[in-house]
Amino acid sequence: MKKESIKQFLYRFNEVMVQIPQPNEGMFVEAFIRELRGGTFGESLVQRRPKDMAAIKIRAASHIKAEEFTVKKKGEEKRDEGANMGIRHAENRGEPLKRTRREDR
Prior knowledge:
Layout: H1 6-17, H2 25-35, H3 40-47, H4 53-92, H5 101-104
């Protein structure tokens, strides 16, 4: 099962939050922290409890950027790893190696 990103969780939480007839900021903050999966963002919220959902959204922004950067980086690493596998296969067959964009630099 794919992990839900902070961005996805925040969006889903907001969808439910707007349906509550008598909103209570403190209840939202506690529910958000309780339901958030483990990780650095959750730990930071436990260590320094936000006062309201606006504070959570502000703090979430940097964690969302970091999460998206990590996903992008992993995608690049997989792509590079796949390209390197092709080079290894060519070496085993005795074929001349193709230069990669990275080697051309």
